[in-house]
Structures are given as structure tokens and as C-alpha cells.
Amino acid sequence: MEGRLIAKRYEIIERIGGGGMAVVYKAMDQVLDRYVAVKVLHDVLHHEEGILRFIREAKNAGRLSHPNIVSVYDAGREGEIHYIIMEYMEGNSLKEWMEKKGPLSPEESITIAMQICDGLAHAHKNGIIHRDIKPHNILCAPDGQFKITDFGISFFSKATQITETGMVMGSVHYFSPEQASGAKVDHRSDLYSLGVVLYEMVTGQVPFDADSFLSIVLKHVQAPVPNPQQINPEVPGQLCRIIFKAMHKDPNHRFHTAGEMKQALQQALNQKTHPRNAILATSAEQVDDLHLPRKKKAWKQRVIMAAIFVTFVSFAVLIQVNENDSTANRPPASQKKPVEAQTAEALTNSSPKRTELNGTYRWWREIPDSKQRDRVFRHFRADGTDGEYDVQLEVGNLSASQFYYNIYVVDRFSSRLILKGKSVPYRKVPEKNFVLTRFHVSIPEVLLPGKGIVKIEIYSSKDRSDAVEFLLQQWGHPPKK
């Protein structure tokens, strides 16, 4: 992409970030003579749902104009490239900033959180719910201004044509309980996530962590928020109470608006309450379920756990993409948390090292026959690993100037079509029955299975009557008979 001119205006300079959804490049706007960030949708998401979601991000962020929100200037499509043009920022993300500095002072944390409240208040006023507030999506400008970015899974709350209820979307460590259980979310979900960010700023760690995705999710729904003072005794009591209120399990008991939360933060900053004035018994006042009779509480917990499990099974891939999407317009962090730390394990006493649900889908039955013969596509070869493959094959006489391929990911969970109808140019060579053709296949790492296969289906006719499958990569071995 480097050197390419987008929309006859934006010259790509270098890649500066990327994740499960998109890649972000630094570019020069040749008309206004300024740097911009160009966000390009991954090829693997060039299907109806992925494109609509990308367009939704551009529209939602484009509705907003605020000093604490990264501006969107333009969006469009050029050939097979879907792009968004955004404000370019030189600084790091809040996540990278915290990794360098460690826990922030209460005063600094409050000041940052107040800026994010301002940005959220503007978004919420315009009907936009972000749904993925986390340090990775908060950028710091050199002048100390903090801005919210990446509205990739936001939605316009006044829109009725898109239903998100039942879909788990967001980043697991910053989930609200309603996100974790697949329930309907509103603007108060963003305030919960900001409460998690505030907790992390003053303590240097997230409130809920575990070896598996599902364990973290259940903690958001059931576990009381740990007292920040047990990690950092210098956290004022007033700030602790703000965190507990923002992270209340029941949205009705959180701050009603981002403006109300900012007001509480401003009061805490003014009062500079001494740490020893904190309320140490923090959990009982925020978890209403503690007051339920035992039988009712147990019944409710079972229902919640079942809802979480069913929702997770339905949308496991979507969760993984969002959790690893770091498409902010900035250089990537030096270290990434392994995908294995964000996937799920069974609701059993399985080993913490297990990173997949104990699915029963027989993935090995979909391994393509390596000895198959085809009259159109033959001598297939794929070089590469872990989502990046250089493919070459011989293609027989075609009447069209292109052929197509689909990509499937198959694991113990299911068989999933993740890329459909990707075209490959083909040029017939006179007096040759077969033409050697090469192309590259790129699959985001977060979509790859722990045990299973990635396969490619190649065809030339729209009805796929001449389709043939080839193996790109295999992880693990079929069970012994």
C-alpha cells in the first residue's frame, strides 16, 4: 500500500497500526497538505455484514465533532478497498502510556477520565453508543488532549433497522455485565467500561482477569469489584466510590449520564479526599443480588450463566475479532496479549491451558482430499503460515477473465465461511492449456483455529459447479480410529 494514492488525494506513507477489522496507515492529504490516518478494511471482512459495519463506523463517527473524539473526514471505496479518512495523531494510546508510566496518580486519572466523559457525553447526546471503551481506543495528543477513537462496533441508538440485542460485542476485560450476557445495551454500558479504565489507571491492572474468556465474562456479571485501595492505598475514597458506582452491575444504579459522572469526578478532584476515608466494604452496596433469597439468587445465576454460554457459542468469532482489533491511528504496542488469553474454555474443571470450548464438531472430516484431480484447477501449492499464504496453481482454459475463491475456518466449534467470492484476475495465454497463476491470501490471526483447518474453495462459475477445495493449513491431528 505504501506509495499508493487513495481517492486521487491521500498518499499512503506507512502502516501505523492494525487489528482484526482493519489496517491503519499514515498518509498525506495532498489537497490540504496535512497528515491523515487512512483506515482500510481487511479483505477477509469484504462481505455484506463487515462492509455495513465499516460504513456504520464512518457514519457514526462522522456525526461527531468534539475535541475529545478523533475526527472522521471522509470515507469511500476505491476498487476493492474500503477506507475511512481520519484525524492523524502523533501520540500513543492510553494503554501504551500506562505501560510506560505504570499506575497513574489519582489526579491525572481523574483529569483523563473527565475528558473521556466529555467525549462520551457528546456521542451519547447525538445518539451514538461506543460499546468498546478501553485504553487501546483512547489516544493521547502531545498537548495532553485525550481523544476517543475506533467506533467500529458503535451503533446509532435512534436507528431501528439494526438489532444488536443478543450479540456479544466489545473487549472482554472492559465488558459491561449487559454486554457479557448479550443483553440490550445503552449509553450506561460505556460508563461501566470507563469505570474499568479508571480502575486500571489508578491500580495498573484491570479489575477482572482470568485464564479464560468465559471466566472473565462471569466475573463481570457476578463478582464484586475489588477495592482499588487494596492495590494502591493512595486512591482516595471518593474516587473509589465513583468507580464502584460506574461499575454497578445494575445500569439503573450507575451514573445516569456521562455529564453526571464528570461532575462527580470534578468534585473528587476538588476535595482531594484522603485515601483513608475510603469505604472498605465496597461490594454489598453495589451488588443488589446479595440481598436476594438464596434459592432465587442461585436460580438467577444459572439463567445468567446459561445466557452467557449460549451467546458466546453463537458469536465466538465476532468476540475474538473485536477483542484483538487495535486499529487506532498510531504505532502498534511492542507486545500484544496472546489470543489464547482471550478465548474460552469449557464450563468444567478443565486445565487453565485449554483455550477452546470442548466442541464436538468433527473438523477433520472437512480436510480436502490431497489426491483429488480437477480439469480446471490443478497443481495447487500454498506457502506460508498463520494467516499469510502465497498461493500458486495452474488454471485451465477459462472463458472469463477472473476466477473466485472462498475461505473456510473449521474447528471443533463449527465450519465458518469467513471470506466469500474474492476474485483473482486470470489472463489466458495462447497455445497453453494451463496458466500458472499466483495470488496472496491474508486471514487475521484472531480467526485462526486452535485445532482445525483453514481451507480454500476455488471456482470459476457463479454457481460453484466447478468448485474444488484445497488445504491452506492444519493445526492438530484427527483422533486415532
From TrEMBL:
EC number(s) recorded for this UniProt protein: 2.7.11.1
Segments forming domain Protein kinase: 10-269
Keyword terms of this UniProt record: ATP-binding, Kinase, Nucleotide-binding, Serine/threonine-protein kinase, Transferase
Annotated region described as Disordered, given as residue ranges: 325-354
Membrane-spanning residues: none
Pfam hit, one: Pkinase
Positions bound to ATP: 39
GO-annotated molecular function: ATP binding; protein serine/threonine kinase activity
Protein name per its UniProtKB record: non-specific serine/threonine protein kinase
Gene source species: Lihuaxuella thermophila
